[in-house]
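Handout, section B. The chain below has 291 residues.
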Amino acid sequence: MNYSADFLNLSGTEHQELAAQRAINHKGDFLNLLKHANYPLKIELPPEAARHAADVEIAHSTTVIAVLYRDGVMIAGDRRATAGTSVIYDRAEKVLQIDRHSVLAISGSPAIAYEIARILEHSFQYFRRSQLQELSLEGKLRMLSRLIRENLSMALQGIGGVIPIFALYDLNAIEDGNGGKIFFYDALGAHFENVDFATTGSGSIWIRGVLRYLSRFGETALHEMDQRQAAITILRLLDIASEYDAATSGYNAKVKIFPTVKTVTRTGVNTVSDDDLTDWYAEAQPEAGTV
């Protein structure tokens, strides 16, 4: 028995009866229920495009890290963009300022991620100017969730997935507290708050365990580090990721390309200068001792 799209209009009881007849075990997964009900998801490429899909190279970017440190959030990303095994660009910006107190770090397809960032920036700005107040924290999170969810069809095709980290500073936090917040998302737009750190991208698998170790057993906990200590830790981690992941770049000494490093504090978003990164990268090397 085949179901038409009208099954979506049935009541909950009728859904259960139909599921029992077809012995559907969707395990709470709505997409799986749609598949069993033969509902057209329309996520395939057009026939003409499908024939040439193998010839299309989509740029991807990795790796990004966010750490809660003493003054707020430090968020960083390497600069390499790849398509398959080719390095397309070595100066990609993966840490994008959205408004005065929020930053989006991207991994996945830069084309989609940059468009999401532009929409977020203009939406936050429009709300601020039209309502004469900032969009709430929950409003910002839900807006990003909706944009990621609307990109689901591209993510399922494997050509436009975006898994970002959203870092911001909550000005409603107590004056002597840390208002830094880190959120990561899944492909369906669900968001989760990380207390100490978050990392995503192909190089993240090599450094997530290190971050967990430092957060729990390090001599100085991540949230207690000052700006210098947090930056040195992040530079070292990106170097580790670049050693094991070809899609991640560390510091390029030949042309002096550093990872992008930004801080989000009560005073706003700031970009760490190359001069500071030069000094801190030198300290991060083994011969300079430990942090």
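Note. Residues 110-131 form the longest helix (22 residues). Compare this with the example in section A.
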